[in-house]
Write a structure and sequence with these properties.
Length: 66
Amino acid sequence: MPKLFDDARSYVLGDIDLELIGDRAKLAQWRHKGVGPAFYRLGRKIIYRGADLNAWAEANRVDPDA
């Protein structure tokens, strides 16, 4: 699968690229429930690594032919 996110980049809330997987509210719900992609909490700032986002996307891939 082509990478959806740049592995070497860090993404913060408000980055337009994060809208690909969900808006701020959806990401907040996932963090609260512990079901979304891995993230770092540095004070009040939330940071997602591109490699973690790609791993999460691949883990949630659905193959309709399977």
